[in-house]
Amino acid sequence: MEKTSKLYQAYVQILKEELIPAMGCTEPIAIAYAAAKAREVLGCLPQTVEIGVSNNIIKNVKSVIVPNTDGMKGIEAAAAAGVVAGQAPKALEVISQVSDQQKADMRRFLAQVPVSVHPVDNGMIFDIIIRLTSGSESAVVRISQYHTNIVYIEKNGQVLLDNTAAQTKGGCGSDGPAEAGLTDKNLLTIADILDFANTCDLADIRPVLDTQIQYNTQISEEGLLGDYGANIGSTMLKFYGDDVRNRAIAKAAAGSDARMSGCELPVVINSGSGNQGITVSVPVIEYAKALAVPKERLYRALAVSNLIAIHEKSGIGRLSAYCGAVSAGCAAGCGIAYLQGADYEAIAHTLVNSLAIVSGIICDGAKPSCAAKIASSVEAGIMGYHMYLNGQQFLAGDGIVTKGVENTIRNVSQLGREGMRETDKEIVKIMMQGQ
């Protein structure tokens, strides 16, 4: 791929936009970011807090610990963390620096300040609206489509920013224009991803990948050392051995173990998700170590796995009833295949095979069981490649599998975006009944 081409530049930009650091599960962090920005606009601590969130935000915040809050969970905790201790310029690392005093202040704030939460349905799958008031002063901040996309700011009734008209109805789960302000991911194809990975100037992508390698390895190692969630990672190693396959699965799961249970280490995300960022990178890193491949090969394999995951997710949407770990785990299988010299045919079959295995996994919010779904998805990714090496494949007509990898990706996108829309509503209903 020519370095000067628009396609090449778009692929580099997609990696820069999607592979960014975040601390904690990204949905509660997005709430904290919106709250911190609203506090910044208001200029003082509020006397009331009103929070409107779409159903998928409710789903992904309900059961996960917000980091740097001394173990608090939920929408109210995330907002309080942003109001009391958030640093809005840090975006998804908004509560990465919190003192013990501020943690105590968060609990005091929640005990003294009325915080109301209500669902909103403005046609956006991803929608957060924070309104703060103090006497006659007020501030409103809205984030839509993706985690850092502030589309509306208001102070004392005066509109300071309004980009709401640019948002596509249906949000990032639509087939319409690219997400506002981001590079159009409809440009992605498996063939072009491999061309880019094979020919790209590593100087263009090394900085984001170095950070991904460092951060995501650290949190996976912490997950194995500590006691987090259901300890899926350490369970994998204890009962299934420590060969490279099991280490790759276990370390990815362990990163999620730690992250879902409030570990205060950052990760580099993929498609708006830390779990997906861990899943798409850690197994590839582990195989690269075992295979003793040159660092250059690892960088190119990570370009493959990251871009394939983004390609899969772009048609589904950032939030869905379709588990994002599936896209990331299957993409990790492709990155592992690339490390071992796989060509387009091998990677296309790896992806189709693995998607056929695990595309039925639902997303029922961020919580400890995400780690087990990651383990299953990475295992499927590796199985998909081993099937190809063994001369086996799932054929067109086997369920949602059809002829051509791009057509199968399109089928999965339709399943996750359209077919599971009602499933998503039922999942939220069930989760709310069980609280």
**Given the C-alpha coordinates, what overall shape results?**
globular
What is the radius of gyration? 21 Å
Q: Number of DSSP strands?
A: 8
Indicate the low-confidence ranges by residue numbers.
169-177
Spatial separation of the terminal alpha carbons: 52 Å
Which features would summarize this protein structure in a list?
435 residues, alpha+beta, 60s Ribosomal Protein L30, Chain: A, 2-methylcitrate dehydratase PrpD, 6-stranded mixed beta sheet, two-stranded antiparallel sheet, 8 strands, 54% helix
What can you see in these coordinates?
- The protein has helices at 6-18, 26-42, 55-61, 75-85, 100-112, 190-199, 206-225, 232-240, 244-260, 274-291, 295-316, 324-339, 344-358, 370-389, 405-419, 421-433, and strands at 21-23, 48-53, 115-119, 127-134, 137-144, 150-155, 158-162, 266-268.
- It is α+β, with helices and mostly antiparallel strands and 435 residues long.
- It has two domains: 26-173, 60s Ribosomal Protein L30, Chain: A (2-Layer Sandwich); 188-433, Orthogonal Bundle (2-methylcitrate dehydratase PrpD), CATH 1.10.4100.
- A six-stranded mixed β-sheet has the order 3-2-4-5-6-7. The protein has a two-stranded antiparallel ribbon with strand order 1-8.
- The longest helix is centred in the last third of the chain and has 22 residues, at 295-316.
- It is globular.
- It starts with 5 loop residues before the first helix and ends with a helix.
